Amino acid sequence: IRKNTFSLLEYLKILDLISNSIESIEEEGFYGLHNLTELNLFNNKIKIIKKRSFMGLDNLEKLNLKLNLIESIEEEGFYGLFNLNELDLSKYYIKTIKKKSFFKLYNLKKLNFFSNSIESIEEGFQDLFLMNELDLDNNLLEYVSNTFLKGFDNISVLKLCNNKINMIKDYSFYFLRNLKRLDLNNNLIYYISNSSLTYLNFL
């Protein structure tokens, strides 16, 4: 998808590109679609989310990128999606979530990373202040750190099933004061610190 491909479709609200052969999105590839609220790129061949690929989608609320070939997300890959509520990045090959991967996605409430190859998270969840549900099921995480969960004051659902987590250390979920559902089944947990679940008053 090249720059300004859809620039003349300014009143379009829903764009469905399911099951095509799209391999890449140039910077500002969707520029001009200011009224778009839903974009579906399910089952394509996108390998990298490049910097500012979705710039110009000011009113986008839902983005589905499930079942692509994505291996990495560049810094500011989703920059400009200031009204995005739901993002589906499930069934990929992503190993690391880098810092600023979700830069300024202040309104994101639901993020799905189901069935990737995530081994580590480098403070990549910064700015997600309104996050309500985070799905990290079926990945390769070996530990939980309160560093990457910092800032999730509003999260109520956290899914960490089918990972390789072996220890729950001190204050691992310290910042998740509103958590109501925590899924940790099918891991390798052998030790849970007494303080790891401190302040989880709604569980």
Structure description:
The chain is mainly beta and 203 residues long. The protein has no helices and 14 strands. The protein is 0% helix and 18% strand. The strands form 4 sheets. An 8-stranded parallel β-sheet has the order 1-2-4-6-8-10-11-13, with no helix packed on it. The chain has a two-stranded parallel ribbon with strand order 3-5.
> Any idea what the shape is?
elongated
Q: Enumerate the strands of the largest sheet in spatial order, edge to edge or round the barrel.
A: 1-2-4-6-8-10-11-13
Radius of gyration: 17 Å
Provide the helix percentage. under 10%
Unreliable sequence segments: none
Binned strand content: 15-25%
Number of strands: 14
- Helix tally equals 0
What structural class results from the helix and strand content?
Answer: mainly beta
